[in-house]
Amino acid sequence: MNLRDLRYVLAVADLSHFGRAAQACNVSQPTLSGQILKLEEELGVTIFERIGRNVRLTPIGERIVGRARQSVQAADDILASARAARDPFCGPLTVGAIPTIAPYLMPYVLPAAARELPQAPLVLHEDITDHLLQSLADGKLDAAILATDLDNPHLTSIELYDEPFWVALPEGHALADRKQIGPEELDPAALLLLADGHCFRDQALEICGHPDLGNANNADIRALSLETLMQLAAAGYGVTLAPELAVDGGRGLTKGLVARPLTGEEAHRRVRLAFRRNAPRQIAIEALARVIREAVPERLHTRRK
Predict the structure, then answer these.
(1) Is pTM, for the whole model, over 0.90?
(2) Which of 54, 62, 145, 195 has the most C-beta neighbours closer than 10 Å?
(3) How far apart are CA 36 and CA 45, in angstroms?
């Protein structure tokens, strides 16, 4: 048994296909299949159940894959630690970000990161919170920009900034002439939300005090992006919440849309940079956190002072 064989097993488990796994590992399919068969013979168990072209893990295969993932990550951490000891700022930093942060924050951060961390270019991955947390735990990401608290003892985070929420609503709406809007003034039946799995959806429901909108008029509208929600609001389908950077203080709006600050102590989210405890490149990650803090508009730091 060796790390190469464990990587082959993980590739098949992740891709559910021997051909795609072989391509990902840069080997021929017969080579990959043969090595996995040898490993199964060595262990005396079947890791994968092969049904035609379909592949799925056996119960013992599930346990083996879990241990294999830990072993491969530990080996990768050893290599990364050695590289980081030589120069923690050398090599790309893989950074995840949720969809309600990435497109609005990165125009501020990327130029600053390129200037301040030239030897550690950012490789970005945009995904929902649960997927990013899993990728962090699996060692596929160095860090992730999130807007939720962490409940994994193996992860830690650095607070970056606080971002207020705004209400985006169509011109001519009854609340459009207000300077600010309270959450209690929002009609739950008119609230447009992101699809399940987006943490911003849960935050919007919690702030507005409506944890269950199953019977709301807009319950059948589940957008995959904040931009879609704002387009729907501009078209008169309802209202939505948006973070400060998405509306640029009410200036960066779709035609036909207006935005007003949302009042209340909970009408904001704390954005943080999450990473694994004792990450090999923690020094570089901490430097990235400083770059992000300095790059975002000063108004986002007001609440933290």
Answers:
(1) no
(2) 145
(3) 11
